[in-house]
Amino acid sequence: MSEQHAFWDEGGLYRTNTHPVVELFAKQRIRHLEARGALQGVENLLDVGAGSGFSSMYYPDDVRVVACDYASGMLETNPAAGRVRCSADLLPFRDETFDAVACWELLHHLPDPVAALAEMWRVAKRRVIVFEPNRINPGHIVLGLTRPEERESLRFTPGHLRRLVKAGCGRTGLHERCGLLFPNVTPLPLARAMQQLPYKMPVIGISQLMVVEKE
Prior knowledge:
Elements: H1 3-9, H2 20-35, E1 44-48, E2 64-69, H3 72-75, E3 82-85, E4 98-104, H4 113-123, E5 124-133, H5 138-146, H6 158-169, E6 174-178, H7 188-194, E7 207-213
Parallel strand pairs: 1-2, 1-4, 2-3, 4-5
Antiparallel strand pairs: 5-7, 6-7
Helix pairs in contact: 4-6
């Protein structure tokens, strides 16, 4: 078992999926996805690399979420009704099974992110939704330099993400930088204050969002 695998299988993340900062972080993201039309027409969604449910549990109630992850230590605490243990580069689903397939901060942890994107594209009917770190953000630079499990995030420039998505999905799409909250480290009072700022945050946003449409 690799160090990355062991880290996440033992629980990886530091705050629970019900922590108030995690809730603020996730709900802000979901609202932005809704505003961008990324959840339009989505009745079922595959959450790849879903972990303990930072993303899975906050999608709208009318979206049936299936959570998948290779780390059993993370997945066992995910509240999604459907949970599947599998690798992101070998998804056990038929072509176009899900209206949307999403991953939040997964690709920079994978040995072959292009293979994972190709699988996500295969099982998606409408679109693929990707969030990844924005290397330009100072906080991500610190995390990348100080935490071994985040080291690969230092490669994730906008150009790097575009190249990965193009290689895996055959095309790119909506691409923007957004958000300021770090769900595992931002103090709650600061998180509440940051919620008042615009979510779309060019240049310094903590995350890159890419939404790739199939048609």
